[in-house]
Amino acid sequence: MQKKKISLHLLFSVFFCIPFVISFTSIFAVFAVSKAEAQPRGAAPVLSFGTGAVWSTSTYQGADNNVIAIPLIMFSGEQFFIRGTGAGMHIYKDERLSVDLLGKYRFEAYEEGDSPSLVGIKDRNGTVEAGLAAQWRLEQAVLSCQFFTDLLNEHGGQEINLRIKKPFRWRMFFVAPYLGVSLHSDSFSNYYYGVDASEAITGRPEYDLGWTANWQAGMALRVGLTQQIMLNTLFGLEILDQEIADSPIVDQDMRFFGMVGIALGF
Hints:
By secondary structure, the chain is mainly beta. It has 3 helices and 13 strands, in the order αββββββββββαββαβ. A hairpin with a 7-residue loop joins β7 and β8 (158-165). The longest helix has 8 residues, at 186-193.
């Protein structure tokens, strides 16, 4: 029976958000269009509250899958917003292009007690990251690019997310399938998937990674049960870079993730 891990300190998780924590990332960062993203400039702020749960399969050897309870909070104003696991400010915004300053907390972390294969490895911690994001709304799709860097020097690296999604609306239904890739610097990759010389033992050799690329695909679905109450779901797949899959502390080459929640909008 899988061990469920409940965490109520995820105060800024919102529509279609995983985190990957999905350990997250990685997960992370998902890109279904929220009401906040669709809000025209000059419109009244959007606010919603709710609750939900996210789950993901573990990539680390012997570690349990994750189930995490989350509050769903989203706010979008003229200049500032709360979205996903962080918040931001619009630098530029028109009908086609938006450029934002972003800040977020990365929950991706593990402790040596999470798995027998991690015993003797130093705990990996979450961190605060900041960066820039740009989003282009085309006729048939939405393209986005995000860049984040570590402010607390935990992993000391960078992440670049490239996404394409195709939103569909039909009455009270909103569907957004997406494809994307997340690029991670060598410092990031080694922090979460590498093995230092001091951590190497028989069966767990020293392991060093370069830049890595994880591919993702999934679908977000929002259903308006009433004018104010929304059911939000997301499910997806992440294919790990071969260097990550070959790590001696990893025993999977992909992970699945999902989210379900209900929120009241104002």
